[in-house]
Design a protein that fits this description.
The protein is mainly alpha-helical. It folds into two domains: 449 residues, no CATH class; 48 residues. The chain is 75% helix and 1% strand. It has 19 helices and two strands. It has a two-stranded antiparallel sheet. Strand 1 and strand 2 form a beta hairpin. The longest helix has 51 residues. The radius of gyration is 25 Å and the shape is globular.
Length: 519
């Protein structure tokens, strides 16, 4: 069955009345959460993981997909109206978007963000349909050593680029791997890191970890820095675009899409880099460069398109390889585990109905986003006036309720509080939370691939390098690790050369002056 027939089957599943309702709920929730500063789709999906236990997997993932796309769009609203990005990927949008809003063009800024998100999301999802099965065919031919190497590279890449310090990133990853080790050894059955507590023998549920780190940790962090001053929200009319706005926006939409999708599909690519590259490109190519810094519509259209195209690209490695590249994808991967579904290249063969319904729902969610968000933009702006104490008190309540509903054990609430405090301390000391969550999710799978590779080679370390791709990936890993040291040595050498020249300069000049005076 080719991909287009599979996609049609996915539409048949996604277009049922109940699944359409879940898609609508997901889009509304995602946009509402994306609009609120400090929240994000990862937290929303984490909070809803326990609630979706009773749903069919296809329905749950259709709702999660709506949240994901809605959250990526909603972040632009707060960037434009408050100059406060709801997501890190919306930072660049705030540069020109807020200037447009202050100049009385908030409606045009919101409109180009919404339409750009729709176009980029649709093109990105089409590329997902084409690329994911190709990646799957390649991945099925790989053995355990190659999977192990790819997982190591993914964890390293995500850890190395997040935050201001690699050391902090690796500390967060180490914490995640430690949490993932809690429970019983999968081979010997020996208990590890359980501290004699029988309730930890089965490990810590990933749902509890995700809810604690994203929701409780963020709520505690905001509570520690809470300010009761109300935000000034710029009034919003009905979003619309004039003929000149369309003329200046359609090329940035396409260029932003071309930047966003490949970066989203790369490990640790994310949306931050392509949105910045899109902004720089539009500034250089614009016929109105003098408007940049004062509210250029191209500076909103391009980055927002790159943002949403990146969201579609993120799903390529998640669905085809089981490797998440951002926080939301990591939590969605945890949802697969929650339903007993093994993510990876065999997912398309074992769960084709689920996968293609999820992909089809992305097209549906894109249409719903455009239809709903253009007329509801003034209503979303009013959400920004919700007092923070009420908002985060509700988040903590639902986080506690969700964590308890996983196993109906009060012990999970204690774990929730401990991990929530850990999430707060990580934010306090600048440790990125995504490596921790990835460590919890991928750690057990990485251990399984490592042990299988060693068993196949009868314990020989050479078994880890028995496939050509594994060798290539480990070379890349070595280069990634060695590059900062090489760059530091190079800068140190060039700096010492400059210092030597500066020290020698006055002596030479003085000697020359002496010769001149003696003559």
């Amino acid at each position: 069955m080719d991909v287009w027939s599979s996609l049609l089957d996915g539409f048949a599943t996604a277009l049922t009345p109940m699944n359409m309702l879940y898609a609508l709920v997901g889009v509304l929730l995602g946009t509402a959460v994306g609009v609120l500063p400090g929240l994000g789709p990862a937290m929303t999906v984490a909070l809803l993981l326990p609630v979706t236990f009773a749903l069919e997997p296809a329905s749950a993932f259709i709702m999660f997909a709506g949240i994901y796309y809605g959250g990526m769009y909603g972040g632009s609203t707060t960037s434009i109206l408050l100059n406060t990005p709801g997501e890190s990927s919306s930072v660049v949008t705030a540069i020109e978007g807020h200037k447009m809003a202050k100049a009385g063009r908030a409606a045009q800024a919101l409109a180009t963000a919404a339409i750009g998100s729709f176009i980029a999301g649709t093109i990105g999802t089409l590329l997902l349909v084409v690329c994911a099965p190709v990646v799957v065919k390649f991945a099925v031919s790989l053995g355990n050593p190659s999977y192990l190497a790819i997982m190591v590279l993914s964890l390293l890449a995500v850890t190395a680029v997040l935050g201001n310090s690699r050391l902090r990133g690796f500390c967060a990853l180490g914490l995640g791997l430690a949490v993932g080790l809690v429970g019983s050894d999968p081979v010997t059955g020996q208990q590890r890191l359980t501290f004699g507590m029988p309730l930890l023998v089965d490990g810590i549920d990933i749902v509890v970890v995700a809810v604690a780190i994203f929701a409780v940790g963020e709520a505690l962090w905001v509570a520690a820095h809470l300010r009761r001053t109300a935000a000034h929200v710029i009034p919003v009319g009905q979003p619309w675009m004039g003929k000149e706005d369309w003329k200046r926006s359609w090329k940035p939409w396409l260029r932003g899409t071309a930047y966003g999708f490949p970066f989203g599909a790369l490990p640790a690519g994310g949306a931050e880099i392509p949105t910045f590259l899109s902004y720089v490109t539009e500034k250089r190519l614009s016929k109105h460069p003098e408007e940049f810094g004062h509210g250029a519509i191209e500076g909103v259209a391009g980055p927002e398109a790159a943002n949403n195209a990146s969201a579609a690209g993120t799903l390529v490695p998640m669905l085809s390889l089981g490797l998440p590249t951002n926080a939301t994808a990591a939590v969605m991967l945890a949802a697969f585990t929650q339903y007993g579904i093994q993510p990876g290249p065999l997912l398309f063969d074992r769960e084709p109905k689920l996968v293609w319904a999820l992909i089809a729902s992305l097209f549906i969610g894109n249409v719903l986003l455009l239809v709903i968000n253009l007329p509801l933009a003034p209503a979303w702006a009013k959400l920004l006036q919700i007092p923070r104490p009420y908002l985060y008190a509700g988040i903590v309540f639902f986080a506690t309720l969700g964590a308890y509903s996983v196993n109906l054990q009060a012990f999970d609430l204690a774990i929730l509080l401990v991990l929530g405090l850990l999430g707060f301390l990580m934010r306090r000391f600048g440790l990125p939370v995504l490596p921790l969550v990835l460590g919890v999710i991928l750690g057990p799978r990485l251990e399984q691939q490592l042990r299988t590779s060693l068993q196949l080679s009868q314990g020989s370390i050479s078994g880890l390098f028995s496939e050509p791709l594994a060798i290539v990936v480990y070379v890349i890993v070595a280069l990634v690790l060695a590059w900062p040291l090489a760059r530091r040595l190079r800068h140190g050498t060039s700096r010492s050369t400059i210092d030597t020249q500066q020290d020698a300069g006055p002596d030479v000049d003085a000697g020359d002056r002496g010769k001149v005076s003696s003559s």
